[in-house]
Design a protein that fits this description.
nine-stranded mixed sheet; Spore Coat Polysaccharide Biosynthesis Protein SpsA, Chain A; alpha/beta
Length: 279
């Protein structure tokens, strides 16, 4: 006979990693400390030389699988990990990001309660190198139309989707370096409703070596590639945003500064590390 444990869906989480030993242990701990009992955790390391492999080995008895060998980058690693997955629900967590307590359990509960939804996403904090919350990611309800207009509002670290949907729309496009998640959200939202849960599920780390800090300017050109691939025009809201973005790119870092300032002035800021999740 099935037990309540057996009846819970298996969740596969994939972590792609390369030379992130400074943060990798915290990432792994954030997955393994989740209060959801059925997690299949797979780590795909790209042949790190900074001690990452030693960190992974410390946890290998709690991992479903791990590999450390040269690859073609993050996108290939994620695709490979999902190719090894057995879960009914999938997610990936980069090796410098973290889950917050209860994230997986809450995501699964929402998908179980709403079988019509193919992907659920929650809120998230931007965190600094020490793991302290410094601002809120601008998560919000979104759909295919809004995504096509360049308003993702999805924290990738807080997104969970059904493996059945992945089999229909995956894999990630390996030619994308930055916007592979946006491309996936576009494809998923064209087939199934998305759901937003205003709970804080992840920490999105900002540091000097992170892609978000060093090559963010490459995101919008890749989003435009998706736009034109799907029949978009230069006479569109997304393309207008792209043109404006090119003009104001030099001052875009100020936006993050403003988010940090608003966060510090928020009366809820002293409790930013609490497990509650109002977004």
């Amino acid at each position: 006979m099935s037990t309540p444990f057996d009846s819970l869906p298996l969740v596969t989480i994939v972590t792609p990693s390369f030379n992130q030993a400074q943060f990798l242990g915290e990432t792994i701990e954030s997955v393994l400390s989740q209060d959801y009992p059925r997690i299949e955790y797979i780590i795909l390391d790209g042949g790190s030389t900074d001690g990452s492999v030693d960190i992974i080995r410390r946890y290998e008895d709690r991992l479903a699988a791990w590999v450390s060998e040269p690859d073609k980058g993050q996108t290939e690693a994620i695709n490979r990990g999902f190719g090894m997955a057995h879960g009914e629900i999938l997610a990936w967590l980069n090796s410098d990001d973290v889950y917050r307590a209860g994230a997986v359990k809450e995501a699964v509960a929402h998908l179980q309660a709403h079988p019509e939804v193919g992907m659920v996403h929650g809120g998230g904090y931007y965190i600094d190198e020490a793991g302290a919350a410094v601002a809120r990611f601008p998560s919000a309800d979104t759909n295919h139309r809004e995504l096509r207009r360049g308003a993702p509002h999805i924290a990738q670290q807080s997104a969970f989707f059904r493996s059945a949907v992945w089999r229909m729309v995956g894999p990630l496009d390996p030619t994308f370096y930055y916007a592979m998640d946006y491309d996936l959200w576009i494809r998923i939202s064209a087939m199934t409703p998305l759901a937003y849960v205003p709970r804080m599920w992840s920490g999105f780390r900002l540091h000097g070596e992170s892609k978000s800090m060093t090559v963010a300017r490459r995101c919008w050109p890749e989003m435009i590639r998706v736009h034109f691939r799907d029949g978009g025009s230069v006479f569109s809201i997304l393309y207008a945003k792209y043109l404006v973005r090119r003009v104001v790119e030099p001052v875009m870092p100020l936006r993050m500064g403003l988010r940090r300032m608003r966060f510090r002035l928020d009366p809820r800021h002293p409790a930013a590390g609490r497990p509650e999740g109002e977004g």
